[in-house]
């Protein structure tokens, strides 16, 4: 009898509404799976249309084009003699569902709708889809005519069912269903399902990979079985990066691991596993077997097909492996770099421009672009024809081969140091040296002429000339003069992004990169419409603490020695006059709090769901060794005042790579008002009462 089953899963770099490209990548993945002997192929969630279609799911066009792609897949020779499991939206009785469509040899076996929808953080599935709430219930789905003409079927099963092949039983769950307390795989396993599949659209968050891997492995640790996990990868048109990590697990142990970050648009993972290992594993778990005897059975769709061969005793099977995790510094180096590459090639621009100040944040952004160049050269060296074609189109040279990261960086990356009379020579030198080491095309310019012209207009109109506070000006004057410098830099950044390549006799334009970190955004320590305003920001979801560790990683792994002096220098905006030629302004003094404190406030506010009073109650215990309750109260009040005063800046925040779960991104992740009563009178009074009691 058949014992060894060969199954395939994949990570695909799908793009929202790119039906042609998505079809091509799906077909390629099926071809690779078949060439490696697989008899079943699983793809990512909503892979036909791309996961990030958002309100385009409301459009009938999205449904129509998804079925047109399904028609092409059913007709393709590549899909013959292999069970194909693809994801797409389906309208059933005027209700939209997020579905798996499972087919074999031009026949649809089952349409399985998602039963638990992701609706927290970056996810809004309940906005577009309805969960299937009829457990173990199947209805007839009337196929569109274009599909009927291919399959010869008028109706197919639609609902919560499993597939029974000649040799085993398969059950599907989708993304969020794995994360729910009562996941479908639990009762499926008790009902004899031996192979569980999970198609996901799961995005990268720093330090999250182990959670996903643990969930997959634990799914079969108590109940036995084979678990196949597929995921999207890349930037499909939004702030998140889907980080692959396709995997296959059996009886609680990983047997195949896909990459978390890569520039490969199609990655296929194949494993051959012995079904008898599942059966023997389950045989000795008496508690499982007792529960199985009482379970309500699932409807079974019979499939006249086997995932194994009759004579497979000599077929080698896969052995357990140890999952290899990236460090947070490696994740920062690779995730945003892959996201930038997708954004660059899909926007059809010619490169990036970065205002490089010589500080940690802009230097970290420059290092991420350098890491992207490194990844491109590595992919081309490994024979990735897609990456080579994209690189040639970006640099406008059909014979070009990117081999050295610094040389490729020179072609696609422009850095610009924008000096003013308040800039120090130290930051200028640091920016120049880093640009030399990564290979960027570097520009030095001075903004003083433009700043004086703008302030001059104000003086002509009002008859008043504002002064910095060190020269006797008020705090309002001081802040306004800093903001003018910052905003002039944004205007110049866009001017140079549009025309630098034109001035060099090269085609195309550049994308402007921002470099405000997640902590500064949370505190609002940035000028609205300054250089934090850009096209995209690869570090906008990363904390200052993690960026410092990333800089150290780049010193050690990329040999960027220019970063040593950047690491040791205190962070400063350099917007106020120098004192004896030295910087007198520092970020932490300006903010009235440290970056370490900001990270704690951010996690308590967003992840801990803490308002002012709850945050105070938590911090008096966390900081009892270093602060009195009255000092903690003062810190909490100052944070919430500054956060609420500046929250309006989040409405215009540059789209940033999502990397932290305490991101203040106002787009859809962190939904808050932007006009607050900044006195917080009731909340602060509760804190004061507690302080007095203590």
UniProtKB/TrEMBL annotation:
Residues 5-275 form the CN hydrolase domain. Its EC number is 6.3.5.1. GO terms for biological process: 'de novo' NAD+ biosynthetic process from L-tryptophan. Pfam families: CN_hydrolase (PF00795), NAD_synthase (PF02540). Keywords: ATP-binding, Ligase, NAD, Nucleotide-binding. It comes from the Eukaryota. CDD domains: GAT_Gln-NAD-synth (cd07570), NAD_synthase (cd00553). Transmembrane segments: none annotated. Pathway: Cofactor biosynthesis; NAD(+) biosynthesis; NAD(+) from deamido-NAD(+) (L-Gln route): step 1/1. One of its GO terms (molecular function) is NAD+ synthase (glutamine-hydrolyzing) activity. Homohexamer. This is Glutamine-dependent NAD(+) synthetase. It comes from Furnarius figulus.
């Amino acid at each position: 009898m058949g014992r060894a089953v060969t199954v395939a899963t994949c990570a695909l770099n799908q793009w929202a509404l790119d039906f042609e490209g998505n079809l091509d990548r799906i077909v390629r993945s099926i071809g690779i799976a078949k060439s490696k002997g697989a008899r079943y192929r699983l793809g990512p969630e909503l892979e036909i249309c791309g996961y990030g279609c958002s309100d385009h799911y409301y459009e009938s066009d999205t449904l129509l084009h998804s079925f047109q792609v399904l028609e092409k897949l059913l007709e393709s020779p590549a899909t013959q003699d292999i069970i194909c499991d693809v994801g797409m939206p389906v309208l059933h009785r005027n209700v939209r569902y997020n579905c798996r469509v499972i087919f074999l040899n031009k026949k649809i076996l089952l349409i399985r709708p998602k039963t638990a929808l992701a609706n927290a953080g970056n996810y809004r599935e309940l906005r577009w889809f309805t969960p299937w709430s009829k457990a173990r219930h199947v209805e007839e789905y009337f196929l569109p005519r274009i599909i009927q003409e291919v399959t010869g079927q008028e109706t197919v099963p639609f609902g919560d069912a499993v597939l029974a092949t000649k040799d085993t039983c398969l059950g599907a769950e989708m993304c969020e269903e794995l994360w729910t307390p009562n996941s479908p795989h639990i009762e499926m396993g008790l009902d004899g399902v031996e192979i569980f599949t999970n198609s996901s659209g799961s995005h990268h968050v720093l330090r999250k990979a182990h959670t996903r891997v643990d969930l997959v492995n634990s799914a079969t640790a108590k109940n036995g079985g084979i678990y196949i996990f597929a995921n999207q990868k890349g930037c499909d048109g939004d702030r998140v990066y889907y980080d692959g990590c396709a995997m296959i697990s059996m009886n609680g142990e990983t047997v195949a691991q896909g990459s978390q970050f890569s520039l490969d648009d199609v990655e296929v993972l194949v494993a051959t596993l012995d079904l008898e290992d599942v059966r023997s594993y389950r045989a000795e778990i008496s508690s499982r077997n007792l529960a199985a005897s009482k379970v309500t059975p699932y409807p079974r769709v019979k499939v006249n097909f086997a995932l194994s061969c009759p004579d497979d005793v000599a077929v080698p099977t896969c052995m357990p492996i140890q999952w290899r995790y990236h460090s947070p510094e490696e994740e920062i180096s690779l995730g945003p770099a892959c996201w930038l590459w997708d954004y660059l090639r899909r926007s059809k621009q010619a490169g990036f421009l970065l205002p490089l100040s010589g500080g940690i944040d802009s230097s970290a952004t420059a290092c991420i672009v350098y890491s992207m160049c490194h990844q491109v050269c590595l992919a081309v060296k490994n024979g990735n024809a897609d990456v080579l074609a994209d690189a040639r189109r970006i640099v406008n040279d059909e014979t070009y081969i990117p081999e050295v990261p610094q040389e490729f960086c020179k072609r696609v990356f422009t850095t610009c140091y924008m000096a003013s009379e308040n800039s120090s020579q130290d930051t200028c030198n640091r920016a120049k040296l880093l640009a030399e080491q990564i290979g960027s095309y570097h520009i030095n310019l001075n903004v003083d002429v433009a700043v004086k012209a703008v302030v001059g207009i104000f003086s002509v109109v009002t008859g008043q000339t504002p002064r910095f506070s060190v020269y006797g000006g008020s705090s309002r004057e001081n802040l306004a003069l800093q903001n003018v410098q910052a905003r002039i830099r944004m205007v110049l950044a866009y001017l140079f992004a549009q025309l630098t390549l034109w001035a060099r006799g090269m085609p195309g334009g550049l994308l402007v990169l921002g470099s405000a970190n997640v902590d500064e955004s949370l505190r609002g320590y940035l000028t609205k419409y300054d250089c934090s305003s850009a096209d995209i920001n690869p570090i906008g979801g990363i904390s200052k603490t993690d960026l410092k560790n990333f800089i150290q990683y780049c010193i050690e792994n990329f040999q960027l020695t220019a970063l040593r002096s950047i690491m040791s220098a205190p962070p400063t905006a350099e917007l106020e006059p120098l004192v004896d030629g030295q910087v007198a302004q520092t970020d932490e003094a300006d903010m009235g709090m440290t970056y370490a404190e900001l990270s704690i406030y951010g996690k308590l506010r967003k992840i801990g769901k803490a308002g002012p009073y709850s945050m105070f109650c938590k911090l008096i215990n966390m900081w009892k060794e270093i602060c009195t309750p009255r000092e903690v109260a003062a810190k909490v009040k100052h944070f919430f005042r500054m956060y609420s005063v500046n929250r309006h800046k989040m409405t215009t925040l540059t789209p940033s790579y999502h990397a932290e779960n305490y991101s203040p991104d106002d787009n859809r992740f962190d939904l808050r008002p932007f006009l607050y009563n900044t006195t917080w009178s009731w909340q602060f009074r509760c804190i004061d009462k507690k302080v007095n009691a203590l």
